[in-house]
Design brief:
Protein name: TonB-dependent receptor
Radius of gyration: 31 Å
Shape: globular
Number of helices: 15
Distance between the termini: 67 Å
Keywords: Cell outer membrane, Membrane, Receptor, Signal, TonB box, Transmembrane, Transmembrane beta strand, Transport
Strand content: over 45%
InterPro entries: Beta-barrel_TonB, Beta-barrel_TonB_sf, Plug_dom, Plug_dom_sf, TonB-dep_rcpt-like
Number of strands: 56
Family: Belongs to the TonB-dependent receptor family.
Helix content: 10-25%
Membrane topology: Multi-pass membrane protein
Length: 961
Amino acid sequence: MQVNSKLAKAVRFALIGGVATAAYSAPALSAEQEQQTANSAVERISITGSRIIREGAVAPTPVTVISGEELLSTGVTNIGEALNQLPALGNTYSLANSGRYIGTAGANLLDLRTMGTDRTLVLVNGKRHVASSAGSSSVDVNTIPSVWVEKVEVITGGASAIYGADAVTGVVNFILKKDIVGLDISAIKGQADDSNFGKDRISLSYGTDINDGRGNIAFAAEYSAQDRLRAFDRDQTRTSFTSLKNTDRPKDANGNYIDSNNPSDPDKYFLPNGGHYRISNAGTFFLDGWKTFNPDGTIGDVYIGPKVDGNYCVDCDFTNLRQFEDLQPEFKRYNLNLKSNYQLNDDMNLYFEAKYVNSQASNYSQPAFFFGNKLNSVKIDNPYLDPNLVALMKNNKDTDGNPQPLDSIVINRFMADLGQRIEDDTRETQRYVLGLEGVLADDWDYDLYATYGQTDLERVNKNNLIYANYQNALDAVMLDGNIVCRSETARAEGCVPVNIFGAGNPSQEAIDYINTTSVGNAVIKQTVLGGTITNSGLFELPAGYVGLSTGVEYRKEESETKEPKNAGGTFFNALGEDKGDFDVKEVFAEVSIPLLADLPLIRQLDMDLAVRFADYSTIGNATTWKAGLSWEINDELRMRSTYAEAIRAPNISELFGAPSQTYFSVKDSCRIDNLNTLADSATRRKNCAAMGVPADFNDEYDAKRIEGKSSGNRELKPEESTSYTVGLIYQPEFIEGLSMTLDYWNIKIDDAISSIGAQTIVDRCLDSTSGINNQYCELITRDPSSHQITLIQSHALNVASLEAAGVDLDLAYKTDILGGDFSANLIATHLIKRRNFSFQDDPSDYEELAGTLGYADWQANLTLNYKYENWLSYWRTRFVNDVSLYTDKDLALNANPSSNMQYDDYFISDVALGYQFDSGITLKFGPNSTAKCDTLQYQAANVISLKTIAGCLKSKHFFGR
């Protein structure tokens, strides 16, 4: 075997083959040590991104490797928070924004390349983990025992053939420490300087060798928690913003404003101190102008002021919806772990893992509300009514001035005094792994394993308004000098009248009668049986040894959701009960072939091939494969590339999801106000007319959310993806301690499975040049009389395709400065393209998302570490480039939609200083999230974590369920 494949060279390139992070890596070998190693027997090392144990080789797949110690050094209480700050991962489901969907509060799901959490495969020690969200494959990484994490591998390209389906965009593999010896106690306490928000984490780990080192057993317990943080708890997040029409424009002959389509002359101005004025916590109604109720029930005028546009006004009596927004959920997590291994003989090791995790999160949302809803009509004989309002109702006149007394009036109201809606989500996760690993005939390594995981979810929805009870309580009359419910039957069933005229007036007895608590449950089960066998030196070729790894795996996934029986007829969404399962049988193989060695400009050239055959109970047979090349040019430079094709089968909710009620915030693109802002509205006007919408339609019904229905789709086909990567690893000898990796990656998914957003459905329906006979218009229902959208269906579809491409850069440097150890690491991702192809019949029609909200074209992390004797210091800065709020396709239709066109770039820094005592105790202190964010406006949680820039957020305006 050649000297260049000895362990020294293997280690050198292995350290920089993923993230070339000097701070995370083992110390470099001295020249003397390298020579000693070269003269010793060849040692096999495990390389990330492959099952084959290599001798002097590095897998061609791009891998980012981060130590568990480094992840926790930022002071986070959950490891997912640190991972979500990596440039390659999107903040789709961070802890801060996890409550935006029903049943997901407290979950932290990883989204590699921001192409969907279901396309990122999360593994623990190379094995699958039970899902945390019903019907999906997504894993809540908060369930990983952070105290035992040795390193985390983030793998891009060709991962499906190695690790299995769901790895379309890549794999995040948590490698846990194998043998735990001794006691480790860690505690973190954090406190905000401008609120009562606090975070805590305490962990304990203890392990010991048994039977003279033949075995090891370890136990770990971890507790983490954080307080609820409301938008109103911070001065920076109290301010409410809204958009008003630009009226400083000339008008045409028809009285319509003339749109210059110039960005300096925006259609709408984004302004502070504004919002809805036609709805309030006290109750708002229109009668001789807009009026509201004072705390004592008397009526007063709503001050609208001169800055008004439809339902919105600025510097007026508006309702600040930020009062209902949370920046961080209340969260608690208890994590218990047990692991052991025992060497039965020199060639056989038995291992076992068990864990139990209980996580609890509370998400607060808007209370029940009524907006233009006749269910909230109050009759004139209601004894709680202000006499002045009764007089107004009696004296009401029609538009011609004729008497038109009213016997009832509709009140628009947030029922905040009945209580904000609260969702308490509790997840209990248990997972067991039993395995036998060892060596056969000196050359074959084997691993036989069985895993079982189960997640039990309980969702408790509090302050859920019962419509029937509310209407009974609202319909109050005076009887024998007492205010009671009008319905005798309702009185017999415990009805308590409610006074909604003025904030805070409902009695506790009425609140208890009106509200209920609804409890839903779900259970997710996963069973995996598998085995692998590996020979790293199957036979020798002139350039080195051929390595082979092959195996089989059986997996069954089950998911069932049960919804509360008392949710019908309440403000809570009517959810369907999902139930489904599938199993898959797989056989896979991976081979590493040395092609050339010791030639000019070819120190070593290896080829990697992998293939996986799968038989799904749902879609039938599927094949994934990959090919890769690793070309070591010399001691300093190596190049690598991969090409892969993969298939992702639909998950349980995508296939079997039952229809569920939801509500969408959309703008009706057929409204004349919206059409008039477009540079070219011909296609939309034509399609609106084809749907029966009048040319002058301008109903403001879309100020509130529109009912929708989401569901699975049993007609789904599997996704098909192709990906390729090209990269280099460079470690110049003339700069000791410097290393660099640079990788280009490209992922394209055809027949991508996706539930399209409601606004996207509306716009794609109307933008189709082939008319309204397309898959998006089929999802929209309009009332034939009012022409309002009454229902939007958002079920899973095979959309045309998704495509993403970018470059990952990693620079690392390590040296001695002033007698101490200094290390610097820069990880950056440049997103070149992120395209959604909308129409199956026109794959050339795409929307470019790179550089827009949620898809910043540049993201980077810079980490600096310095250690001098017992002193430790740490600095980490995260950068996200500015993003546009509109795609190029949006701006082609309308170049000047708003004065708020982009969010500026920002920097967020964490700083820490510590001291390591000789006793083994280390103390660290420092502020987190020192942010430059003065120019930021409202940032959606999928762009940056609300945890870090909560102080920079401003609010949009919509209300709904």
